[in-house]
Design a protein that fits this description.
806 residues; Maltoporin, Chain A; 3% helix; five-stranded mixed sheet; 22-stranded antiparallel β-barrel; mainly beta; Immunoglobulin-like
Length: 806
């Protein structure tokens, strides 16, 4: 009831609209081969006409070539009649139902009979799906997300159905943060291989659209039990020279949410945001050149967390962790498309990005009544991340439309160069401590993908091979009374080999839509540790596992459809999850990896129902995910030390069960409404784990069940003079986290956009968290301690921007 009351209050408070594209395939290509039935000889110059089934109006037409082949593009989903006319042969006509599961429909061989023979009817079945074009994919335009324009991809994601984002950069889909983030369909070090790093520093201005894939097919890598988020960069393909120039700026942290504890440096206020962007494209004859360049500079109150630690011996420590952050992110995406001839093409592309982060932080520690300061921890973190990506994609088109062979090679280099210095001020001494981390990541991917259209669907098959190598070096330099563990430094190397093969069969008929797929993956992961390490030894794992997927849909009628999904997926520990070196984000809360960490495997089920209306649609889905070997952080503390160490562990079995509902309705040309409600239950079975670092410590937890959810309400107003207003409101219910709970979160965003200069120019003004209500409250229970915290980090930002197309 509490959640329901909150939902109702939120609905009455505000509306928002996230502008989803109705992800239809509106450009279907049909093809076939016309032959003479008596001797199977191809027939050239046959007239092929496509007519509307309702009124027989002309839609499209063509003639077969000298080989008897034909192809007709840009056919929208719907019911048609297709006729074949040639002198001396019977006029042949067949019904054609064009659907949306496949961009290409191969009619196969059409056999024409001479006038004295009679042709049997051939039926081609396919159907239209308004909500998504491949049963599981939802596509959203960044341009339609007015309230987050000028921000980062992470900020844009928070408005999308089923997605929640955290202050730590984590993205959760339907309550799980095990999400695979792709860029242009590929994993890169920019977003993390299995992780989510970097999303808050990718400018939204560089992105064309975002795809949410809740139930990925076997064609995708098997990692990510919650699903896949695919981020598509802009790439213009218009003829000639064209482009887009944009500039956005803004201010954050205009008002102070909570004042500092005594005698520390001021927290950031009036933080500037600057985002210029440039998109260029030149297409002529057989070549297409493209460039997307963005720079994002931000100053941010990245963290302002007030924490109370209560220990079993009665000790109480109060602290504030404040982090002022400066970020420079610069990226260039560029390449060339070369159409060698009608059957062969080659795309060469590259990406270069740098991310410079400077953090200046303060963390004072006080006793219970704040009458005495125990110590002051002040730090400077200087981090430079460099990413280079080179890709080559070759495509061979067979004579049948949509019959293609793709081969691709992708190489990624990512360097993490981090320097960390902090002054540890005690009542009797002052110490200067520091560490330096250098990590170089090399990833090479090679893939082959083959697609063949059929009369009622298509076949997809392929293979992929990945090699990944990450040598890491950590150096510690302790000062007086240092908390640093000097013996935890040294070298470690992460190496991974993953070959995989897959095959999919997609079928469409008048009532049934189906996809059956299987991916078989072999993984060999080795983690070599400095033999002198005081706790951990070299470790690793290997496996050969099948990952099937099933997607079925039954069309009750033209407006209503039932669907069922099943897939098996895996979440492999990322390199940072097993990294042996402690990370001091908080002077008394230290994060450490675990080389003995194993993958977690998940079986996912979903039952969905969709109904289309004249002015919108309603979609609801029941889903259930069951996971073995759940990966999570476990926090332990060993007296007499008050330091808390959080270490990744496999915590046994867990499940996530929920219901998601999406309602969209266009009340008029001036007003559209969209709402998304997601309610789910997280269950974690009882478990016991051993944290080995810094000394062995056993932690046991009882079975835990908690129901949570989120509500997003959306409204878009189309005003006169090409002006749009978007109002967005998000409510996140309390939820469980490892060893604890996270409190309610609520925010309202507003955006205004006006098109000018004959639609070539665009102005926008927006504000995030306009009521300044968003904050994060956490409660954490460990073996011997309780921790409560509230983070008053920067959430309110006002932006203004302009872009011009030429």
């Amino acid at each position: 009831m509490f959640l329901l009351r909150k939902c109702i209050v939120t609905i009455l408070f505000s509306w928002l609209f996230i502008g989803p594209l109705k992800a239809q395939l509106n450009n279907i290509t049909i093809s076939g081969l016309v032959k003479e039935k008596s001797n199977t000889a191809p027939i050239a110059y046959v007239n092929i006409i496509v007519k509307n089934a309702k009124d027989s109006s002309f839609v499209a037409g063509t003639v077969s070539n000298e080989e008897g082949r034909f192809s007709i593009a840009n056919i929208k989903p719907g019911n048609y009649l297709i006729s074949y006319t040639y002198t001396g042969f019977l006029i042949t006509q067949q019904p054609l139902l064009v659907g949306s599961l496949s961009a290409f429909i191969n009619l196969g061989i059409i056999a024409l009979e001479s006038e004295e023979q009679q042709l049997k009817e051939v039926v081609v079945n396919s159907k239209q799906d308004n909500l998504n074009n491949k049963l599981d994919k939802k596509t959203y335009s960044i341009a339609a997300n007015i309230s987050q324009a000028g921000g980062s991809v992470l900020q844009a994601l928070k408005n999308l159905p089923g997605i929640t984002t955290g202050q730590d950069g984590k993205v959760a889909l339907r309550g799980s943060d095990k999400v695979a983030i792709l860029i242009d369909g590929k994993q890169t070090a920019l977003t993390g291989f299995g992780g989510q790093t970097g999303l808050d520093n990718i400018p939204a201005s560089a992105i064309e659209r975002i795809e949410i894939i809740n139930n990925p097919s076997a064609k995708y890598d098997a990692n990510g039990n919650a699903g896949i988020i695919n981020i598509i960069y802009k790439k213009n393909k218009q003829e000639g020279f064209n482009g887009k120039l944009g500039f956005a700026t803004g201010l954050g942290a205009i008002w102070e949410k909570k004042e500092n504890l005594p005698n520390i440096r001021p927290q950031y206020q009036g933080t500037p945001k600057i985002n210029p962007s440039l998109s260029l494209n030149y297409r002529k004859n057989k070549t297409n050149l493209f460039l997307q360049s963005d720079w994002l500079y931000t100053e941010t109150l990245n963290k302002n967390e007030f924490v109370t630690r209560t220990y079993n011996d009665g000790t109480i420590i109060n602290s504030q962790l404040k982090r002022n952050r400066n970020t420079h992110f610069f990226n260039n995406s560029f390449g060339i498309d070369w159409n060698i001839n009608e059957q062969n093409s080659l795309t060469l592309s590259g990406f270069y990005g740098t991310e410079k982060i400077i953090d200046r932080g303060d963390q004072p520690f006080f006793n219970k009544d704040y009458s005495s300061r125990n110590r002051l921890w002040q730090f400077l973190e200087d981090e430079l991340k460099t990413t280079v990506v080179a890709s080559a994609i070759y495509q061979h088109k067979f004579k049948e439309a949509g019959h293609v062979l793709n081969m691709g090679f992708n190489y990624t280099f990512h360097r993490e160069d981090e320097k960390y210095n902090f002054v540890n001020t005690l009542s009797t001494s002052v110490g200067l401590d520091s560490f330096k981390l250098l990590s170089d990541e090399h990833v090479a991917d090679f893939n082959v993908d083959y697609t063949k259209p059929l009369k009622h669907g298509r076949i997809e098959t392929g293979l992929k091979f990945r090699y990944r190598d990450i040598p890491t070096n950590m150096q510690f330099k302790p000062g007086v009374n240092s908390p640093l563990d000097v013996n935890a430094g040294g070298e470690a190397t992460y190496s991974e080999i993953i070959p995989a093969v897959y095959s999919n069969y997609i079928y469409e008929s008048n009532r049934i839509e189906a996809e059956l797929g299987l991916r078989i993956e072999y993984v060999d992961l080795q983690y070599k540790v400095n033999p002198n390490h005081n706790t951990y030894k070299s470790d690793g794992y290997n496996y050969t596992q099948p990952f099937p997927n099933i997607r079925l849909a039954y069309k009750l009628n033209e407006q209503n459809k039932l669907s069922f999904f099943f897939n098996r997926r895996v979440d492999r520990p990322n390199e940072v999850d097993i990294r042996i070196f402690p990370k001091y984000d908080d002077a008394e809360l230290i994060k450490v990896g675990n080389p003995a960490l194993s993958p977690q495997f998940t079986n996912s089920f979903e039952l969905g129902y969709k109904t289309n209306t004249k002015k919108g649609y309603f979609y609801t889905a029941l889903y259930h995910r069951k996971t073995n070997g759940t990966i999570t952080r476990i926090a332990t503390q060993v007296p007499p030390s008050t330091l808390i160490y959080t270490v990744f562990q496999n915590a046994g079995k867990s499940s996530n069960t929920g219901i998601e509902m999406v309602l969209q309705h266009d009340f008029s040309k001036a007003f559209s409404f969209n709402t998304n409600l997601n309610i789910y239950q997280n269950l974690i079975e009882a478990f016991t784990v051993l944290n080995k670092y810094p000394v062995p410590s056993v932690y046991s937890a009882n079975k835990e069940v908690y129901t949570s959810g989120n509500l997003k309400i959306n409204a878009l107003f189309h005003l006169p003079k090409q002006t749009d207003i978007q109002l967005t409101s998000i409510y996140l219910a309390p939820d469980i986290i490892p060893q604890g709970k996270i409190g309610t979160r609520f925010s309202v965003d507003l955006g205004i956009k006006k098109r000018i200069q004959q639609n070539k120019g665009e102005l926008f003004l927006n504000a995030t968290d306009i009521l300044n209500t968003l904050q994060i409250q956490k409660d954490l229970v460990g073996n011997g301690f309780n921790l409560t915290s509230t983070d008053y980090y920067e959430t309110q930002v006002f932006r203004i921007g302009y872009s011009y197309k030429f």
